[in-house]
Amino acid sequence: MVRPSAWEWARAALLSANLAWTTLCLGGILPGTREVTAALTAALVAVHLADPARGTRAHTAGLLLLPFVAYAAANAQWVTPFRWLGWTDWLNWAQAVAVYWVVLNGIVSAPCRRLLCLTLGTLGIAAAFLAGYEHFINPSWLPLGKTQVHQFLGRSTGPFGIPNSLGVFMALLIPPAAAAALDRSRPAPARAALSLALAAFAFAFVLAVSRGAWIALAGAVALRPLVSPGKSLLRRVSGAVAMAAAAAAAATLLYFSFPLMRERVDQLVADAGEKTRPILWRGAWGIAGDHPVLGGGAGSFDILFEKYRPVGFRDQPLYAHCDYLNTLSDYGALGFALLFGAAATIAWRCAGARGLAGAAFTGLLAFALHLLVDFHLKIPALAMTVASIAALVTAEAWPQRDEGRMPAGGAARAAALCLAAACVGIAVTWAVPRFRAEESRRVARLGIDRMAASGVDPSGQRAALEGIRAGLARAVAMDPSNAQAWSDKAYADSLWSFISPKETVELGTQVEREAARAVEICPDVAEFWIRRGAGLDMQRRWVEGGDCLVRALQLAPNRADVWYYQAYHQSLISNDLGPAMAAADVCLRLDPGFLLAQVLRQRLGNRTQPQP
């Protein structure tokens, strides 16, 4: 047995801490969480590179993923119009590949691998406990003091905040837990503990009420016998049929015994599949058609989707709800081939895995199937978890020893140490400040959105606006490349004119300058033009302000908020209220619940009535 070194124990401990932190903090989706995650990942890579025994080793499977990481970086720098989003997207990819690389090349001893497996199992049990707490005690609970959104009430989300994320997390863990629990070579106490863990995973898997996760795991279990090694075609097909029958029987039992599952399945049948996801898929396919080779750019889907937003669709999707289409949309056919071509090559080499590794491969297959209907690779905790499990399976099914070692010697050692220092330096001076700035911006924008949603008069919100403006000032100071932060700062400064009306023209100049900075960074976002138009209106430069709002309508013709600002602009520039009322009516057709538009429409209606 290979005896682990202190370096390897350090890697295993750092990765375990990173997985625990990221998973338990809403899956790592918040920038404040990702700040710590990025630092821990950089430390993990630096420790690996500094290890004289492992720093120059490279498994072929890890090398296969490097072309995509390099291409994604080039895309984020030179292709995407939304560079501040593109680099954030790249960091997530780079982090997942780094974890895969380190586990594959640097966590090789049985004790350290057991620590990693124990960490994942413990996180699974913790997630199951939290799922039960949500289901039976507090359905609105979320980590970090957050409150569950209405649409997910009744479905457990565990530490992720999203039920589908909990479902696929359990789909990853259930097959290897089942294989370990049924392994008669293990001591009885260990098998009993593993059986309890399996029961907890299955419990949370059901409580997530994730149709996609259920179908994905059932499909993976049914497909797995088809690639089992050492069996005839007839036995493989028979095994697949038997597994499919067992999955169908389990689904039938749950359907009749679990009302919430019955409700979700009946809804799926009534809707004849999905309603909203096909809209996003068509949008992603349209973006890919417009940019077939290089894609719309890293992190571009959410903004470029506006061109394909249908009338009445009010969701802000962020992602395409299909990681394959999202990658094709963002990175084009070239990026898609580099990433999923490498993943398919690795999967093909690992399909013959047996025992525990084979069971883990089934979980990975379920994860891959579920990517057809969700964005799990955009969730840092899930991306790192699947990278860790995939690396463990690869090491078992595709072993390489000395043939994967890069040339040793002083030059290679010096290069490894330079790379280690570079990783730490990039994290400290670039990645961490980006996430810290984005967290400051996010919190400030939440404050603005709460004010807008509640319809509160900004003139009575001095203290709140002071805090919001300070947070946005910090954001643009820490990351001047964040165009959204500049736009939000312009938004907050325009609201300050309600506090100090005498400063409206002066504030308008400042708002225009800040919004112009956002437009300079990226002219393809409708909101940035709205903010610039607002600044010009505050200076009574009506024609220029109107031009900005026309540009916003061209970029996002079916966004209700864009029509609201058009209506507000029209209400300022003329006594003829017809155009303003028409724009307000369009806004309310697109979103009947738009509170600010309702108030504006009522006010305009009052102005058109004859005075007594």
How much of the sequence lies in strands comes to under 5%
Our count of helices gives 24
Euclidean distance between termini CA atoms: 95 Å
What Rg do the Cα atoms give? 27 Å
> Helix share of residues?
over 70%
Unreliable segments (pLDDT under 50, ≥5 consecutive)?
403-407
The topology string of helices and strands comes to HHHHHHHHHHHHHHHHHHHHHHHH
Mean pLDDT: 91
Major β-sheet annotation: none
Structural class: mainly alpha
- What is the overall silhouette? globular
The domain tally reads 2
Total strands: 0
Fill in the keyword field for this structure.
Serine Threonine Protein Phosphatase 5, Tetratricopeptide repeat; 73% helix; single chain; mainly alpha; 612 residues
Please explain how this structure is put together:
The protein has 612 residues and is mainly α. The protein folds into 2 domains: 6-258 and 355-421, no CATH class; 458-608, Tetratricopeptide repeat domain (Serine Threonine Protein Phosphatase 5, Tetratricopeptide repeat). The protein is built from 24 helices and no strands. It is globular and about 85 Å long. The N and C termini lie far apart (95 Å). The model is unreliable at 403-407 (pLDDT under 50).
